[in-house]
Amino acid sequence: MNFREFVKKLEKEGKLVKIKDKVSVKYEIASIMKKLDGKPLLFENVKECNIPVVANLYSTIDLFAESLNIDKKDMIKTLAAATSKPKKFKISNKVKYKEVAADLTKLPILTHYGVDGGPYMSSVIVVAKDKEYGINSSYHRMMVIGKNKVAVRILPRHLNEFIKRGCKEVAICVGNSSQVAIASAISADIGVSELEIANALLPTEFNEIDGHVVPESEMIMIAKVLDEQHDEGPFIDLTETYDIVRKQPVFEIKKIYIKTDPMYHALLPGGLEHKTLMGLPREPTIFNEVNKVCKCKNVLITPGGCSWLHAVVQIEKKKSDDGMKAIEAAFNGHKSLKHVVIVDEDINIYDINDVEWAIATRFQASRSLVLKEKQTGSSLDPSSNPDTRETTKVGIDATIPSGHSKEDFKKNKVPGEDKVNVKKYIK
Ligand SMILES: Cc1cc2nc3c(=O)[nH]c(=O)nc-3n(C[C@H](O)[C@H](O)[C@H](O)COP(=O)(O)O)c2cc1C
């Protein structure tokens, strides 16, 4: 399903909140996005420009599951399958675009927070090509520093490598299908194309524009990678705390192509959509690693842990050390993970109270705590060492300790609790 088809579907189902009032790209749209986080929004009337803004579109796992036509509980399996079997695609050139002026002031680019260094495009995906490695697609926030110039945050991963190897021009995709949105957040091995992972998730249309292969999007920009750096930031990031100012590469927007009546996709940094996109792709990688050492049943990267730093892993415990092994495996499956809790099958990992209950009743720090000091942690964690990223990691094995009767640790039910029809008693 492409971007606008999903927006239409949500509208039909009454799940899209339409905002008709005139709203500004400076703080006003972001403030409404934050208040209505988790609800897909359509801002029909933008003060500064005549392009409508879609926001919070992929902000929950339920929305993602719906857009991918799958059951939410099959998400990990589906992502793992697509990642292990990317699907080649053909360029159909079916999608029609027209060129407009390469002028970013004509687009509804939001300024989200008071401390941000400027207006930011935060939902955009960069598609880059390398002779040997093929096509890479990844997210890169872009701070607008001129009518056709942006400072781009590029971490030392694949796009950075492509640029070092000579990539001088890229395509920037705005308003993407859910399969492209989620696949581009996956850290696939270099040489594995995230766009082929997207195509394995759902068949995707591709065009070739000015020599760039691009997935169907609402807008495509062609940008030159300049041999120039500029201050980028501050930027309120995933943790809702600010990321520092750094010198980052500058891109010059050479061309902008749009679909007829395009929509702009806004993503609130630190909001649920940001969190969902970051966390979801890590659940299958943790799942696979834990499954190598014991039977993994489910994984949740929790929104309270910024959908990045905390995970709950559910296992079917068969051996006494399964919980401790699962802790090590979870850290292997997601290198930025800081705290992990291992629980049994009877714990509802989507209910934080149930997880806390397992810690309260099944865990003893003296026998099932793992403390790993001097580890490399996440650059997103403001409490880690800012220069080295050094952090302390903690694993909590909150499974029922071996050698005890499971009965001692079960939540007891009142006889008939599941069957009673309470409505009958409330008059
Ligand atoms: C919403 C969102 C925003 C992101 N912003 C950036 C960014 O500004 N810079 C960056 O280097 N990575 C960013 N990332 C991470 C990369 O897109 C992600 O790690 C990607 O998988 C790395 O791609 P690669 O494995 O092809 O290098 C972001 C991810 C998401 C989901």
Count of individual beta strands: 22
Cα distance, first to last residue? Answer: 47 Å
| Helical coverage, percent range | 10-25%
Characterize the overall form. Answer: globular
* Main beta sheet strand tally, sense and closure: 9 strands, antiparallel
User: Mean of the pLDDT scores?
Assistant: 97
Supply the helix-strand structural class: alpha+beta
Ligands, ions, cofactors: flavin mononucleotide
Summed up, what is this model?
By secondary structure, this protein is α+β, with helices and mostly antiparallel strands.
Q: How would you summarize the topology of this molecule?
A:
Layout: H1 3-12, E1 17-19, H2 28-35, E2 41-43, E3 53-55, H3 61-67, H4 75-84, E4 98-100, E5 120-121, E6 125-130, E7 134-139, E8 142-146, E9 149-152, H5 158-164, E10 169-176, H6 178-183, H7 194-201, E11 206-209, E12 212-215, E13 217-232, E14 235-236, E15 242-243, E16 246-258, E17 264-266, H8 272-279, H9 282-293, E18 295-301, E19 310-316, H10 322-333, E20 339-343, H11 352-362, H12 365-368, E21 369-376, E22 390-397
Parallel strand pairs: 1-2, 3-17, 19-20, 20-22
Antiparallel strand pairs: 2-3, 4-16, 5-8, 6-7, 6-10, 8-9, 9-16, 10-13, 11-12, 13-16, 14-15, 18-19, 21-22
Bound molecules: flavin mononucleotide.
What can you see in these coordinates?
- By secondary structure, the chain is of the alpha+beta class.
- The protein is 24% helix and 29% strand.
- The protein is built from 12 helices and 22 strands.
- The chain is globular.
- The model has no long low-confidence stretch (mean pLDDT 97).
- Flavin mononucleotide (FMN) is lined by residues 136, 138-141, 153-155, 157-159, 185-188, 267, 274, 277-278.
